Amino acid sequence: MKTIASPSLSKSKLRSHLANHDSFLAKKNRKSFSLLGLEQFARRFDFIYRHVKYPEAFVKDLAKSLRTIAGKGSIQPLLDCLMSWEATAELDASPQTRKRILRAYSTLKSGKIKTTSSRKKFLESVNAD
Question: What is the pLDDT, as a whole number, of residue 28?
């Protein structure tokens, strides 16, 4: 005599299998996401390190932001550090652009160009640092 499995038993096995499968996919996606983030971080680090004039200062600043992350749990200090140094690396990678920006800043700072009051306040705050 042949026994037939009850429909409720097969449904519970199916649910269990699907739950395990979903759990597996969630772990796999989490892992691939973190690897993707790490690869992106490595590319950004490499670009910055190769193009800034003072890579030691970049590494010190990066270590400082990592210590801040360990204390706070937010990755915002790391993102801010990378964005700031990326801008510096882009300027250092292109000497002509850097010269043009420094020339324009010098002209604004000297007062040779008419400027708005808000820009004047900005330049005063920058010069105070």
Answer: 47
Q: How far is CA 101 from the centre of its chain?
A: 25
> Per-residue DSSP letters for the chain?
------HHHHHHHHHHHHHHHHHHHHHHHHHHHHHHHHHHHHHHHHHHHHH-S-HHHHHHHHHHHHHHHHHH--SHHHHHHHHHHHHHHHHHH-HHHHHHHHHHHHHHHHT-S---HHHHHHHHHHHH-
Instruction: Report pLDDT digits (tens) over 71-108.
Output: 777 888 888 999 999 988 988 888 788 788 888 878 87
Tokens of 28: 């796999």
Count CB atoms within 10 A of the CB of residue 69.
Answer: 16
> What's the CA gap between 65 and 85, in Å, rounded?
12
**Cβ–Cβ < 8 Å for 65, 81:** yes
Instruction: Quote the pTM value.
Output: 0.52
